[in-house]
Design goal:
The protein is mainly beta and 218 residues long. It has one helix and twelve strands, in the order αββββββββββββ. Strands 1, 2, 3, 4, 5, 6, 7, 8, 9, 10, 11 and 12 form a twelve-stranded antiparallel beta sheet that branches. The chain is globular.
């Protein structure tokens, strides 16, 4: 646990230092989650610092809330800031094929995103297939995952474009209530815009689960 706290402090220091010296950039249009579904009555909060690997570098950070909204269906609410001025999103993840024996979990996520960059507003929609598979090891349970988020960017003018990324990552189940993970999101296609500063990103994310027994109620 002391190592985890130390890593959190380092990530926070990087976020604070880099935010004030970074060049303009969009928030990462990645995944930051597996195809696993949290059960009914369980809530999950988390945070995700994201490091840009190109276009001058920089860091964004986000916080999110996950909840179960039906069988095989989770929802996520998220806000973020950093080198991107501000962004907020809501998504729904549907997983009709859960992780079972040799079959990986297979699902799809739909997402709507509002973003403000300087004096420009962006209204984005995203679709992303996600695949993941649990593995038990001596160091605990790991959930490698991959996905292909495709984001459609709409400015207030007619200057619209598309961004797609290939995402690989893994979530580490530290204990039933605390998970951490890492993700690499690589640019595949950028439709082109004068406001487009996307770059491949390396992200950490931390999840903490709560249930109805300790105060959260539906």
């Amino acid at each position: 646990m002391n190592k985890i706290v130390s890593h959190l402090r380092i990530a926070l220091q990087i976020f604070v230092i880099t935010t004030f010296f970074a060049s303009p950039s969009f928030a990462a249009f990645g995944l930051l989650e597996t195809a696993e579904i949290i059960p009914a009555g369980v809530y999950r909060v988390g945070a995700a610092p994201q490091l840009y690997l190109g276009n001058g570098g920089g860091v964004d950070g986000s916080a999110f809330l996950d909840l179960n909204v039906g069988q095989s269906l989770n929802s996520r609410l998220e806000i973020g800031s950093g080198v991107s001025d501000f962004w907020a999103s809501a998504s729904a993840k549907f997983v009709p094929y859960p992780d079972y024996q040799n079959q990986p979990a297979m699902g799809i996520r739909g997402k709507v995103i509002y973003m403000r960059e300087a004096d420009t507003n962006f209204y984005n929609t995203q679709i992303a297939p996600i695949f993941s598979k649990k593995y038990s090891t001596e160091r605990g349970e790991f959930i490698p995952y991959a996905g292909l988020p495709i984001t459609f960017i709409y400015e207030k003018s007619s200057n619209n474009f598309t961004i797609s990324k290939l995402c690989f990552g893994s979530e580490w189940v530290l204990n039933p209530a605390a998970h951490m993970g890492v993700e690499l999101a690589m640019d595949l296609y950028n439709g082109g815009s004068t406001y487009t500063y996307t770059a491949s990103t390396l992200s950490l994310f931390f999840n903490f689960q709560f249930d109805e027994r300790i105060g959260f109620k539906k």
